[in-house]
């Protein structure tokens, strides 16, 4: 049991911060101290930003993205290609693809990947909604942008089987050499996948 160094209110702040991903107890203490020192400049705006977030954030009923409007900004953006649905496991993956300007398509957030060992089955994912969206005649391609892990690939195969009858092309992200990557440092699985999926130069 760690010895408390501050009053219960400050300890509570530290404990809450320590629950954030990437922050252990030490960095939570540093973050709390920083917030307290910058009370006016940081803590008050942060408090109101969190309050607004609590009140306004909704999950898009079409794609599962998080926004303050439903349907979300991505779903209602008319510059987006309605023919493409990019399937991701999590909102974090959607944000990563958006940061990279990787696609002009729309998204579908599954909420997780299938993981029999952790008891995550198809009913825990938004797969039914994806199948329904794939049947929209406007949609011609489903891009499976899932993790290159066992769970990610299990999920990709499961969805591919379900969409056999839908009139869509199903693609997935390439596996291979990362941009700026050196061959000597790659694991054998990545190297052999890159060799199998080589493209015409
Ligand atoms: Zn949406």
The proportion of residues in beta strands is 5-15%
What are the segments in which pLDDT stays under 50 over at least 5 consecutive residues?
Answer: none
CATH architecture descriptor text of the largest domain = 3-Layer(aba) Sandwich
Kindly name the structural category: alpha/beta
- The overall strand count is 6
The CATH topology assignment of the largest domain is Dna Topoisomerase Vi A Subunit, Chain: A, domain 2
Give the C-alpha Rg.
21 Å
Range of helix content: 40-55%
Output the helix-strand order. Answer: HHHEEHEHEHEHEH
CATH class of the largest domain: Alpha Beta
Enumerate the strands of the largest sheet in spatial order, edge to edge or round the barrel.
4-3-5-6
Bound molecules: zinc ion
Q: Note the overall shape.
A: globular
Q: Separation of termini?
A: 60 Å
Tally of individual domains: 2
Largest sheet: 4 strands, parallel
Mean pLDDT: 94
Please count the helical segments: 8
Topology, element by element:
Blueprint lengths: L7 H11 L6 H13 L1 H18 L1 E2 L6 E2 L5 H4 L4 E8 L2 H9 L5 E5 L17 H8 L6 E4 L5 H13 L6 E4 L15 H9 L5
Parallel strand pairs: 3-4, 3-5, 5-6
Antiparallel strand pairs: 1-2
Can you tag this structure with a few keywords?
single chain; 201 residues; alpha/beta; Helicase, Ruva Protein, domain 3; Dna Topoisomerase Vi A Subunit, Chain: A, domain 2; 2 domains; two-stranded antiparallel sheet; globular; binds zinc ion
